[in-house]
Specification:
mainly alpha, two-stranded antiparallel sheet, 4 helices, 60% helix
Length: 115
């Protein structure tokens, strides 16, 4: 599965951005009571495959925990089924897009460039 994400000109492919997105994802998992951690040193393709597998697993095993996590990440549940593609692929895109937004906004506000 090929996914490209960018927010305000910042891409997952940029140095250290993917690592920060995975760190933010791990933080949101922990805050949602989910005891799972993704490897922050993963390369993008491996991380995407692992994350998609995790989504498929939790979707089938514990949907309530997944929806609690989506609430924490701030993903609109209605968006999951409103796009083309499989729900788990939509979830992956929505979650990563939101986590990237959080990373970019934190970077902007911590550096004082919040224009």
């Amino acid at each position: 599965m090929s996914v490209e994400f960018s927010y305000q000109g910042v891409s997952l492919l940029e140095e250290d951005v993917l690592k920060k997105v995975i760190e933010q994802l791990n933080k949101d998992l922990m805050l949602s009571g989910i005891e799972y951690k993704f490897d922050t040193n993963s390369e993008k393709t491996k991380f995407i495959d692992t994350f998609l597998f995790w989504i498929e697993t939790i979707l089938s095993e514990n949907e309530n925990l997944l929806f609690n996590f989506l609430y924490r990440v701030d993903v609109d549940q209605k968006s999951i089924y409103s796009k083309d593609g499989l729900p788990q692929e939509n979830l992956l895109r929505l979650i990563l897009d939101r986590e990237l937004q959080k990373v970019v906004l934190k970077r902007q506000y911590s550096s004082g460039t919040n224009s």
